Amino acid sequence: MHFLVILLVSLSCFSTEYKLDEDTAKFSARITRLNKSAKLMRLKISFENAKFLRKSDRIEFWNETYPNKKCMSYVLGRSAEYLLVKVPKYNECIHNMHLTTGTYLHLYSEDLEKGIKIGKGLVEILIKKKFALQSKMKRYKNELNSHIEKVELVSKRYQVLREKLDLELKEQLAALEEDKVKNFQNFNGTKAKLDDLMFKLEQYRVYDQNLTEDRWSLDPKLYFKK
Predict the structure, then answer these.
(1) Would you state the torsion angle of the CA atoms of residues 144, 146, 150, 156, taken in this order, to the nearest 10 degrees?
(2) Residue (of 70, 71, 64) closest to 90 by Cα position
(3) pTM of the entire structure?
(4) Collapsing DSSP states into helix, strand and coil, what is residue 30?
(5) Rounded to an integer, what distance in angstroms lies between the CA atom of residue 226 and that of residue 210?
(6) Fewest beta carbons less than 10 Å away: which of 54, 55, 68, 134?
(7) What is the spatial distance between Cα 135 and Cα 7, in angstroms, rounded to a whole number?
(8) What's the mean pLDDT in 117-143?
(9) Tell me: the pLDDT tens digits for 132-150?
(10) CA–CA separation, 61 vs 176, rounded Å?
């Protein structure tokens, strides 16, 4: 009967939840196995901060029925649901706290508290990095979203430049064509003047003599003018 009372009291104590913001280094557990010869105790745990417990961390535990009687233990191993601890004063703790399989315990670890503080510091750093990365992602996303708009702006810009170049090309070709026509006209006009000049030169040419040599023989003595 006495054991049932202790068990019921322990259950009511275990139902008390420790808020993470209130006291993150305190937690509750249930004894699932005891090993007297090895002075070992396996505890069933269920709290998020258990991940900060490391091998050899010190854990103080007590039975809520006897809050003034506390014992020290050391972590030997941890899984997702269980915690294996070494209890140096095993016999004394079991006897004074009336511990048995199924007993619920309250525990506190200063090493756990230190680990949580380090974890919080790391979280703050990671959160800052998270915000920085999210800011970069937002900037890159905006760049991606504005890509089509930028492509259209560049296309319009070069379309205007292309039209301007086409207009300048047409103007330059027109100017060259005009120069060609002018040069052709000037050439024909100058040629006409030259032809007229040559006609006049031929018309008014004065010859040195009116006789021409008749070279019908190879002997120059037989040349004569007629």
Answers:
(1) 140
(2) 71
(3) 0.54
(4) strand
(5) 9
(6) 68
(7) 54
(8) 93
(9) 999 999 999 998 888 888 8
(10) 103
DSSP codes joined into one string, 59-88: EEEE-TTSTT-EEEEEEEEE-SSEEEEE-T
Which residues lie across from 180 on neighbouring strands? none
- Cα(183)–Cα(190) distance, integer angstroms: 10
- Alpha helices by DSSP H, listed for 68-226, are 90-97, 110-145, 147-204
Supply 57's token pair. Answer: 């961390």
**Of 106, 102, 101, 82, whose CA–CA distance to 36 is shortest?**
101
Residue 107: Cβ-neighbour burial (10 angstroms; 0-12, 13-18, 19+): buried
Length of the chain: 226
Are the C-beta atoms of residues 45 and 57 closer than 8 Å to each other? no
**Category of 17 on φ-ψ map: left (φ > 0), alpha (ψ -120 to 50) or beta:** beta
| Integer CA distances (angstroms), 17 to 27, 29, 121, 174, 204, in order | 8, 11, 24, 93, 136
10 Å CB burial of residue 31 (0-12, 13-18, 19+) is buried
- Residue 67 · residue 131 · CB < 8 Å: no
Q: Which residues pair with 75 in a beta bridge?
A: 85
- Tokens at residue 182, please? 């002018």
Rounded Cα distance between 6 and 63, Å, is 9
CA dihedral sign of residues 92, 98, 100, 103:
negative
